[in-house]
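TICKET: design request
STATUS: open
ATTACHED STRUCTURE:
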Protein backbone atom coordinates (compact mmCIF):
# COMPACT_ATOMS: atom_id res chain seq x y z
CA UNK A 1 0.00 0.00 0.00
CA UNK A 2 0.98 3.67 -0.25
CA UNK A 3 3.32 5.35 2.23
CA UNK A 4 1.50 7.28 4.90
CA UNK A 5 1.87 10.88 5.98
CA UNK A 6 4.61 11.69 8.48
CA UNK A 7 2.23 14.21 10.17
CA UNK A 8 1.69 12.04 13.23
CA UNK A 9 1.00 12.50 16.96
CA UNK A 10 4.48 11.67 18.20
CA UNK A 11 6.47 13.75 20.63
CA UNK A 12 9.47 15.57 19.21
CA UNK A 13 11.67 13.23 21.22
CA UNK A 14 10.04 10.10 19.76
CA UNK A 15 10.42 11.51 16.26
CA UNK A 16 14.11 12.11 16.93
CA UNK A 17 14.55 8.53 18.18
CA UNK A 18 12.88 7.12 15.06
CA UNK A 19 15.02 9.32 12.83
CA UNK A 20 18.16 8.11 14.62
CA UNK A 21 17.27 4.45 14.20
CA UNK A 22 16.59 4.92 10.52
CA UNK A 23 14.93 2.45 8.14
CA UNK A 24 15.30 -1.25 9.02
CA UNK A 25 16.56 -2.33 5.62
CA UNK A 26 18.39 -5.43 6.89
CA UNK A 27 17.12 -6.30 10.36
CA UNK A 28 13.43 -6.35 9.40
CA UNK A 29 12.05 -4.73 12.57
CA UNK A 30 8.73 -2.96 12.22
CA UNK A 31 6.78 -0.55 14.38
CA UNK A 32 3.46 -1.69 15.83
CA UNK A 33 1.36 -1.01 18.93
CA UNK A 34 -0.19 2.32 19.88
CA UNK A 35 2.45 4.49 18.22
CA UNK A 36 1.95 2.80 14.85
CA UNK A 37 -1.85 2.83 15.19
CA UNK A 38 -1.79 6.58 15.71
CA UNK A 39 0.49 7.38 12.80
CA UNK A 40 -2.70 8.35 10.97
CA UNK A 41 -3.56 12.06 10.81
CA UNK A 42 -6.20 13.25 13.33
CA UNK A 43 -5.36 10.40 15.71
CA UNK A 44 -6.87 10.20 19.17
CA UNK A 45 -3.82 10.08 21.43
CA UNK A 46 -0.07 10.17 21.80
CA UNK A 47 1.63 6.91 22.69
CA UNK A 48 4.04 6.88 25.62
CA UNK A 49 6.23 4.19 24.04
CA UNK A 50 7.55 2.77 20.79
CA UNK A 51 6.98 -0.92 20.08
CA UNK A 52 9.26 -2.67 17.60
CA UNK A 53 8.55 -6.22 16.50
CA UNK A 54 10.37 -8.87 14.53
CA UNK A 55 9.01 -12.01 12.88
CA UNK A 56 11.99 -14.12 14.01
CA UNK A 57 12.33 -14.80 17.74
CA UNK A 58 16.07 -15.39 17.48
CA UNK A 59 16.67 -12.01 15.83
CA UNK A 60 15.21 -9.82 18.58
CA UNK A 61 18.38 -9.65 20.68
CA UNK A 62 20.52 -8.81 17.65
CA UNK A 63 18.12 -6.12 16.45
CA UNK A 64 18.09 -4.55 19.90
CA UNK A 65 21.90 -4.59 20.07
CA UNK A 66 22.19 -2.86 16.71
CA UNK A 67 19.57 -0.25 17.62
CA UNK A 68 21.22 0.34 20.99
CA UNK A 69 24.53 1.05 19.27
CA UNK A 70 22.89 3.55 16.92
CA UNK A 71 21.22 5.35 19.80
CA UNK A 72 24.29 5.48 22.03
CA UNK A 73 26.46 6.72 19.15
CA UNK A 74 23.92 9.53 18.72
CA UNK A 75 24.28 10.50 22.39
CA UNK A 76 21.25 8.78 23.90
CA UNK A 77 21.33 6.72 27.07
CA UNK A 78 19.67 3.30 26.86
CA UNK A 79 18.62 1.81 30.18
CA UNK A 80 17.37 -1.78 30.05
CA UNK A 81 14.35 -2.47 32.26
CA UNK A 82 13.62 -6.05 31.21
CA UNK A 83 15.39 -8.58 29.02
CA UNK A 84 13.90 -11.98 28.17
CA UNK A 85 14.23 -14.32 25.18
CA UNK A 86 12.36 -12.56 22.39
CA UNK A 87 11.66 -9.40 24.41
CA UNK A 88 13.65 -6.37 25.54
CA UNK A 89 12.24 -3.26 27.24
CA UNK A 90 14.38 -0.18 27.68
CA UNK A 91 14.07 3.51 28.43
CA UNK A 92 15.79 5.77 25.92
CA UNK A 93 16.83 9.10 27.44
CA UNK A 94 18.47 12.13 25.95
CA UNK A 95 18.37 15.88 25.69
CA UNK A 96 14.73 16.83 25.44
CA UNK A 97 13.03 13.83 26.95
CA UNK A 98 12.69 10.09 27.34
CA UNK A 99 10.52 7.30 26.00
CA UNK A 100 10.07 3.60 26.66
CA UNK A 101 10.96 1.32 23.76
CA UNK A 102 10.13 -2.38 23.41
CA UNK A 103 11.76 -4.87 21.05
CA UNK A 104 9.70 -8.07 20.78
CA UNK A 105 8.82 -11.08 18.69
CA UNK A 106 5.42 -11.41 17.03
CA UNK A 107 3.91 -13.88 14.62
CA UNK A 108 4.45 -13.23 10.93
CA UNK A 109 0.80 -14.15 10.33
CA UNK A 110 -1.10 -11.08 9.17
CA UNK A 111 -3.66 -9.93 6.64
CA UNK A 112 -1.57 -7.33 4.82
CA UNK A 113 2.13 -6.80 4.08
CA UNK A 114 4.05 -4.25 6.11
CA UNK A 115 3.86 -0.65 4.92
CA UNK A 116 6.68 1.86 4.70
CA UNK A 117 6.71 5.33 6.20
CA UNK A 118 9.41 8.00 5.65
CA UNK A 119 9.78 8.48 9.40
CA UNK A 120 8.77 5.19 11.02
CA UNK A 121 10.34 2.79 8.53
CA UNK A 122 8.32 -0.41 8.34
CA UNK A 123 4.95 -0.39 10.09
CA UNK A 124 2.27 -2.97 10.60
CA UNK A 125 -0.65 -2.24 8.26
CA UNK A 126 -3.51 -0.27 9.90
CA UNK A 127 -6.00 -3.13 9.57
CA UNK A 128 -3.59 -5.55 11.29
CA UNK A 129 -2.94 -2.98 14.01
CA UNK A 130 -6.70 -2.66 14.57
CA UNK A 131 -7.21 -6.43 14.70
CA UNK A 132 -4.35 -6.76 17.18
CA UNK A 133 -5.96 -4.07 19.32
CA UNK A 134 -9.20 -6.08 19.47
CA UNK A 135 -7.28 -9.11 20.75
CA UNK A 136 -5.35 -6.97 23.25
CA UNK A 137 -8.56 -5.41 24.56
CA UNK A 138 -10.06 -8.86 25.10
CA UNK A 139 -7.23 -9.65 27.51
CA UNK A 140 -6.84 -6.42 29.48
CA UNK A 141 -8.86 -3.45 30.67
CA UNK A 142 -7.05 -0.16 30.12
CA UNK A 143 -8.38 3.24 29.16
CA UNK A 144 -5.82 3.67 26.37
CA UNK A 145 -7.08 0.49 24.68
CA UNK A 146 -10.65 1.77 24.85
CA UNK A 147 -9.58 5.01 23.14
CA UNK A 148 -7.67 3.01 20.54
CA UNK A 149 -10.48 0.58 19.69
CA UNK A 150 -12.98 3.40 19.17
CA UNK A 151 -10.46 5.11 16.91
CA UNK A 152 -9.98 1.89 14.93
CA UNK A 153 -13.75 1.28 14.76
CA UNK A 154 -14.40 4.75 13.35
CA UNK A 155 -11.31 5.34 11.20
CA UNK A 156 -10.08 1.93 10.03
CA UNK A 157 -12.83 -0.73 10.06
CA UNK A 158 -16.00 -1.19 12.13
CA UNK A 159 -15.73 -3.43 15.17
CA UNK A 160 -17.93 -6.04 13.46
CA UNK A 161 -15.34 -6.62 10.75
CA UNK A 162 -12.42 -6.54 13.18
CA UNK A 163 -13.94 -9.20 15.45
CA UNK A 164 -14.90 -11.39 12.49
CA UNK A 165 -11.36 -11.25 11.11
CA UNK A 166 -9.60 -11.51 14.49
CA UNK A 167 -10.54 -15.18 14.88
CA UNK A 168 -8.51 -15.86 11.74
CA UNK A 169 -5.43 -14.70 13.64
CA UNK A 170 -6.41 -16.35 16.94
CA UNK A 171 -8.53 -19.45 16.22
CA UNK A 172 -8.99 -19.96 19.96
CA UNK A 173 -11.81 -17.42 19.73
CA UNK A 174 -15.11 -17.36 17.94
CA UNK A 175 -16.54 -13.91 17.11
CA UNK A 176 -19.19 -14.36 19.80
CA UNK A 177 -16.76 -15.51 22.50
CA UNK A 178 -14.51 -12.57 21.65
CA UNK A 179 -17.47 -10.21 21.92
CA UNK A 180 -18.38 -11.60 25.34
CA UNK A 181 -14.97 -10.49 26.59
CA UNK A 182 -15.23 -7.12 24.88
CA UNK A 183 -18.60 -6.45 26.51
CA UNK A 184 -16.78 -6.31 29.85
CA UNK A 185 -14.62 -3.43 28.62
CA UNK A 186 -15.38 0.28 28.48
CA UNK A 187 -16.21 0.68 32.17
CA UNK A 188 -13.97 3.62 32.96
CA UNK A 189 -14.10 6.81 34.95
CA UNK A 190 -13.15 10.28 33.65
CA UNK A 191 -9.93 10.32 35.69
CA UNK A 192 -8.73 7.21 33.81
CA UNK A 193 -8.44 9.33 30.66
CA UNK A 194 -6.86 12.33 32.37
CA UNK A 195 -3.65 10.30 32.67
CA UNK A 196 -3.46 9.77 28.91
CA UNK A 197 -1.87 12.14 26.41
CA UNK A 198 -4.97 12.69 24.30
CA UNK A 199 -4.97 14.74 21.13
CA UNK A 200 -8.29 16.35 22.12
CA UNK A 201 -11.17 16.20 24.60
CA UNK A 202 -12.66 12.76 25.24
CA UNK A 203 -16.43 12.59 25.80
CA UNK A 204 -16.82 9.47 27.93
CA UNK A 205 -20.62 9.36 27.85
CA UNK A 206 -20.80 9.69 24.06
CA UNK A 207 -17.97 7.18 23.65
CA UNK A 208 -19.82 4.64 25.78
CA UNK A 209 -22.90 5.00 23.57
CA UNK A 210 -20.80 4.45 20.43
CA UNK A 211 -19.16 1.43 22.04
CA UNK A 212 -22.46 -0.22 22.95
CA UNK A 213 -23.78 0.39 19.43
CA UNK A 214 -20.60 -1.09 17.94
CA UNK A 215 -20.91 -4.20 20.13
CA UNK A 216 -24.56 -4.70 19.17
CA UNK A 217 -23.80 -4.36 15.46
CA UNK A 218 -20.85 -6.73 15.76
CA UNK A 219 -23.00 -9.39 17.41
CA UNK A 220 -25.71 -9.11 14.74
CA UNK A 221 -23.06 -9.30 12.03
CA UNK A 222 -21.44 -12.39 13.57
CA UNK A 223 -24.77 -14.22 13.71
CA UNK A 224 -25.64 -13.36 10.09
CA UNK A 225 -22.43 -14.22 8.23
CA UNK A 226 -21.94 -17.74 6.84
CA UNK A 227 -19.46 -19.83 8.87
CA UNK A 228 -17.37 -20.69 5.81
CA UNK A 229 -16.27 -17.03 5.69
CA UNK A 230 -15.09 -17.04 9.31
CA UNK A 231 -11.81 -15.24 9.92
CA UNK A 232 -11.75 -13.13 6.76
CA UNK A 233 -11.80 -9.47 5.88
CA UNK A 234 -14.01 -8.19 3.07
CA UNK A 235 -12.31 -6.23 0.30
CA UNK A 236 -14.28 -3.66 -1.70
CA UNK A 237 -12.88 -3.96 -5.21
CA UNK A 238 -13.91 -0.61 -6.70
CA UNK A 239 -12.71 1.39 -3.68
CA UNK A 240 -9.64 -0.73 -2.89
CA UNK A 241 -10.38 -0.82 0.82
CA UNK A 242 -11.90 -3.13 3.40
CA UNK A 243 -15.56 -2.88 4.32
CA UNK A 244 -18.58 -4.59 5.86
CA UNK A 245 -20.97 -6.55 3.59
CA UNK A 246 -24.71 -6.13 3.81
CA UNK A 247 -26.73 -9.18 4.93
CA UNK A 248 -28.61 -11.34 2.46
CA UNK A 249 -26.81 -10.08 -0.66
CA UNK A 250 -24.09 -12.17 -2.36
CA UNK A 251 -20.61 -10.69 -2.01
CA UNK A 252 -20.11 -10.46 -5.78
CA UNK A 253 -23.20 -8.27 -6.09
CA UNK A 254 -21.67 -5.94 -3.50
CA UNK A 255 -18.35 -5.82 -5.33
CA UNK A 256 -16.59 -7.59 -2.48
CA UNK A 257 -14.28 -10.57 -2.10
CA UNK A 258 -13.16 -12.33 1.10
CA UNK A 259 -9.53 -11.75 2.04
CA UNK A 260 -7.66 -14.13 4.36
CA UNK A 261 -4.38 -13.68 6.18
CA UNK A 262 -1.20 -15.67 5.77
CA UNK A 263 2.44 -15.48 6.91
CA UNK A 264 3.81 -12.11 5.78
CA UNK A 265 0.40 -10.86 4.68
CA UNK A 266 -0.80 -10.52 1.11
CA UNK A 267 -2.31 -7.71 -0.96
CA UNK A 268 -5.88 -8.58 -2.05
CA UNK A 269 -6.02 -9.92 -5.59
CA UNK A 270 -8.86 -10.88 -7.87
CA UNK A 271 -8.21 -14.00 -9.92
CA UNK A 272 -10.56 -14.27 -12.92
CA UNK A 273 -12.44 -17.52 -13.18
CA UNK A 274 -12.70 -19.00 -16.68
CA UNK A 275 -16.17 -19.94 -17.88
CA UNK A 276 -16.67 -23.72 -18.04
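STATUS: resolved
RESOLUTION: sequence designed for all positions
ATTACHED SEQUENCE:
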Amino acid sequence: MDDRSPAVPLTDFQRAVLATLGPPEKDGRYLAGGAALHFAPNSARFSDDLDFFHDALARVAGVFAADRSRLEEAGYQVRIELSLPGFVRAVVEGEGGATRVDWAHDSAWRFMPLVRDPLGGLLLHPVDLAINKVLVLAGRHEARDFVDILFAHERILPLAGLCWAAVGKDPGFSPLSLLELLKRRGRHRPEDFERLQLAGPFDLAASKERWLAALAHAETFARERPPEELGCLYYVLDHERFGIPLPGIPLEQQGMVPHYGEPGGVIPQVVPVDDP
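CLOSING REMARK: The chain has two domains: 12-124, 128-225. The domain at 12-124 is CATH 3.10.450 (Nuclear Transport Factor 2; Chain: A,).
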